[in-house]
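ingest -> fold -> write
write: protein_1
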Amino acid sequence: MRGDEFMTFKFVDPKDENEIKQMSLIASRIYKEYYDELLGAAQNDYMIDLFLSPQAIKDNLSHGYTYCFARETDVDAGFMAFYPREDAMYLSKLYLDKPYRGKGYAHDMIDFIKSEAEKSGLHAIELNVNKNNISKYIYERLGFRLARDEKNDIGHGYYMDDYVYRLEW
């Protein structure tokens, strides 16, 4: 268990350039550490630029995404991004920095997203996870079920070869 540690969430203000820049820095650092080995540095660098640059985050915020810092006390331990899509809240990103993994925080983050989904009248969360990413087992333990698989062309000869998981309540 976590003892006295607890997780809080801080929404990114779409007008706050410093928060957007901070989100990009944290997200890029975590992605680099986590995905370089899984995807290769070249594809990962391309994806970081495409999806996690300050401009990409600003664009997403202007199109209905919500970005949140996940904090352990006063430290940014990770982040998440989500938005309502069709009949589910789509979880675009959920990542924790290495020292904060394995503490049960993913459960806290999913509970937070569930509450945000309910505020939008939604009762499901969907997400994509790379077929080779061991995080798929964490999602399964959190109650997500495999819905389908997808292969999406993201340009420059790179593909996202994913499973789509869904949690309903």
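write: protein_2
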Amino acid sequence: MKLSELLGVTVVTTDGEELGRVHDALLVQDGPVGAQGFAGLRLHALAVGTRSFGTKLGYTQGTVKGPWLLRAMFRRPPTLVPWLAIVHRSAERIVVDRGRIDESR
């Protein structure tokens, strides 16, 4: 599976509620750096939301402070959907279990 296969895919809950589209992925290092200088990475969660422009600019991660107007426009962070919450995945949509999503961010 390639990350490009996930980006832009619509995410819905098992109840049919649409959460938005996949805008980014959270990877975690899952092993030491090998002899070739590459670390083993694992897909931990998907960043899902209705807006992606603020995420692409870095506003939702809190790393960009920028002008107050842009901060106000992009203040709603994406929902992080853990990989383990995914029930079904196809090219058109990803179905997730709402009970496994922590929205306390």
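write: annotation protein_2
The two ends are 28 Å apart (CA to CA).
The mean pLDDT is 81.
pipeline exit 0
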